[in-house]
Design goal:
Strand content: 15-25%
Oligomer: single chain
Strand order of the largest sheet: 1-2-7-4-3
Helix content: 40-55%
Shape: extended
Largest sheet: 5 strands, mixed
Number of strands: 9
Length: about 270
C-alpha cells in the first residue's frame, strides 16, 4: 500500500485499479485496497467446483464446455464482512480448452508417477496424488477426480461490480507484460545478482537497468520484435574504418530489408 499510494501521489492519480495474481487474494489485502478507495482485479484460487459451474453442468449434462465460456457469480458482502471493510465483489469463471489440455497433461504425468510409487517401482517423492495409510501407498483417486473437474477453469475476483466480463479478464491477462519485464530485468539486463554495498552504487545499477528496460520496451513496441530478436539480428552489423596510408575507408555490410525497416520504425518519431 505505501508503494501504491506513493505512485498515486507522484503521478497525481485518483482512479487506480490494482491487478494481481492469486497470492494477493487475502482478506486483509482486499480490506486495505477498499479502505484506500482502490478497485482491484485479482486471480482467484478454486479449491472446489464453484456453484455456477456445477449449475451449468447440471443444466448441460454430457455436454462439452464451450471454449471461452464465462460464468458470473455475484458475491455481495455480508453484514459481518461489511463491518470488516470487505466490499461487494463479483467473480467471473472462465473456461479455456488450451488451459484444460495443459492442466490435464500435468495431472496425467503426476498420476503416472504416483501409480509407479504406489506399486513400488519408484521412490515416494513429493506428489500430491500419493495417499499414505500407514505403510500402504495408493493413488488418491478422489483428489484426481476433483482436480480433473476443475481443469480449464480460472477465476477472477473484482470489486468493479459494474465492469464487463471482457474488461476484467483482459485486464488480468495483461499481467504477462509485468512478468516478462521481471524476467527481462533479472536475466537479460542482469538486475540481479548485484554485488554492490553502497546505496549510490545500488541505485546507479538499478537506474541503468530500468533505463535499459525502457529502451527495450520502446524498441519492441516500435518494431513488433522481441528485444532478443532485435539484438540477435542487429549485433552482426558493424561499421569498420580501415586506414590505408593517408586514406580512411569505411566498410559495412548492407542491412537486410527487415532490419532496415525496423530501424526506420525506431526513428519514426525522431528518436535516435
Amino acid at each position: 500500500m505505501p508503494v501504491i499510494n506513493a505512485f498515486k501521489t507522484a503521478h497525481q492519480l485518483t482512479d487506480v485499479t490494482v491487478v494481481a495474481d492469486a497470492g494477493m487474494i487475502s482478506e486483509a489485502n482486499q480490506v486495505a485496497l477498499n479502505a484506500a478507495a482502490l478497485s482491484f482485479i485479482l486471480g482467484t484460487r478454486i479449491p472446489f467446483l464453484p456453484d455456477v459451474v456445477r449449475e451449468w453442468r447440471d443444466k448441460h449434462p454430457n455436454e462439452a464446455v464451450p471454449d471461452g465460456l464465462v460464468l458470473t457469480q455475484p458475491s455481495p458482502a455480508t453484514s459481518s464482512e461489511k463491518a470488516r471493510g470487505i466490499p461487494d465483489r463479483v467473480i467471473y469463471y472462465q473456461f479455456r480448452h488450451d488451459r484444460a489440455r495443459r492442466t490435464l497433461r500435468g495431472i496425467d504425468e503426476q498420476v503416472r508417477k504416483a501409480q509407479r510409487a504406489a506399486e513400488g517401482h519408484a521412490p515416494v517423492k513429493r506428489n500430491r496424488y500419493i495417499q499414505l495409510s500407514g505403510a500402504t501407498k495408493s493413488v488418491n483417486r478422489t483428489l484426481e477426480a476433483k482436480t480433473r473437474a476443475l481443469a480449464g477453469w480460472k477465476g477472477y475476483t473484482t470489486n468493479l461490480t459494474t465492469a464487463s466480463q471482457a474488461f476484467v479478464i483482459d485486464a488480468y491477462h495483461q499481467l504477462w507484460h509485468i512478468e516478462k519485464a521481471f524476467r527481462m530485468s533479472k536475466h537479460d539486463l542482469q538486475a540481479r545478482p548485484i554485488y554492490h554495498h553502497l546505496r549510490d552504487s545500488i541505485e546507479a545499477h538499478l537506474s541503468i537497468v530500468v533505463a535499459a528496460m525502457a529502451v527495450s520496451h520502446y524498441i519492441e513496441h516500435q518494431t513488433g520484435w522481441s528485444i532478443k530478436k532485435f539484438v540477435r539480428t542487429a549485433r552482426r552489423y558493424r561499421t569498420v574504418k580501415i586506414r590505408a596510408g593517408n586514406q580512411t575507408l569505411t566498410a559495412a555490410d548492407p542491412l537486410t530489408d527487415d532490419l532496415r525497416a525496423a530501424l526506420i520504425k525506431i526513428r519514426a518519431d525522431g528518436a535516435h
